[in-house]
Amino acid sequence: MADKTQIPKIIVLDFGSQTTQLIARRIREFKVFSEIHAYNELSIADIQLINPKGIILSGSPYSVHDTDAPTVSKKIFDIGIPILGICYGMQLTAHLLGGRVEKSECREYGPADLIIDEPDELFYGLDPAPVPHRVWMSHGDRVEVLPEGFSTLAYSESSPVSAMKHDKKPVFGVQFHPEVVHTTIGNEVLQNFVFRICKCEPSWNMHSFVETAAKEIKAKVGDGKVICALSGGVDSTVTALLINKAIGDQLVSIFVNNGLLRKNEPETVMAFLEKLGLNVRYVDAEARFIKRLYKVEDPEEKRKIIGNEFIAVFEEEAKKLGDVKFLAQGTLYPDVIESVSFKGPSATIKSHHNVGGLPEVMKLDLIEPLRELFKDEVRELAKELGMPDDLIYRHPFPGPGLAIRILGEVTPERLNILRDADAIVIEEMKKSGWYKRVWQSFAVLLPIRTVGVMGDERTYEYVAAIRSVDSVDAMTADWTRLPADLLARISNRIINEVRGVNRVCYDISSKPPATIEWE
Which CATH number does the domain housing residue 20 bear? Predict the structure, then answer.
């Protein structure tokens, strides 16, 4: 692999928080390189070899008092590298260094007012007491007694120690989450840590990412061959372009028509992929996927079946090409964090075919160069690689395709109904100018039928639901307040033009508690 030890960086030690990647993302937004490692992945010697400019200890779903609580060696606080503990990271710092962490009498989940007692370097430029600052809390424990040598920097109503620092060492802790947008001073706190305390320079960007990733890919692949699972979406296309830049004709991209794609998708995708100069093979696997999904209704089982079938197709194609050792995928961080523990003990929400849906034994090694990026970062990367805007801003489409937008059994009849309804949604969103304004919009087919009247005849047909959401990174999302006249046009067209649907609903659920996709 390429030598990352020479790149100035902040490393984040992951204790399992769902927002760990947001920490690294915020720092990258400051044009400083940041990468995540599991809390138990690096020894003290490893950290000293990497020689990061700073270390951040993430939050966690655990309490420091749990028997299996993740931890680090307390020697980390003696190596002279600036450290910032966030939430659990602060509590762990206090716990390891002799302070006392207790269950809070009043837990804090959500917004809280922070009062800054000491406008230290961490809070440079921010108003001190009595001015309150709105921050986001998420904890049941709190620091009751500071470790020796530490002092309090800030407090909230339920946390007498909401921020702390060592009087002589560059060790800090905050009880709130500066990485989330709900903390109004979050960027200022992180910037103060990165620039004032860690002395970083804003020199990293997507061009740097391309150069580093290309070197890593070339080092990993050597003279081997790679096949890339190419769907035509921005994620997989960027993956293919990045790998193509690294190894050229050692890459063969494979577009699999699994029968679960949108209307006219195979023809459209193949046309624009060839314009990008990629070596693309088309595989028609529609019949085999539909057969494997026969009478399957459970969404997790659908995902597993689709994931296994994709791998079977890729392994067959690799065999035809000869001596292929690697499979490349456009996996992004939101896929990973919802599917499996990323690099720490974060909770699993659902499987994605290109993450949790993979078989336990594979004949191909995975290459996932976008695994730690969010969608908007991938779009920046796409611009760096020269992709046209109409490809960059296509709405996300799930790996399992329409199978997880058909609730219940997937059949050719239901697929055709959903394709036609979904095409109308996309067409009307584009006509109205709303397509570029939202994160994602699509149709879902429900496994229920309702009574309706068309002409003078009674109908008993399916219900279609419309989903449109606003988001930045797919970790959270809010339903889009589409104009009533636009929803009316979409509904009217679906009911009139799509045989099999007589009722249309609009999904007004946010993420969380719902997910963006229905399955």
Answer: 3.40.50.880
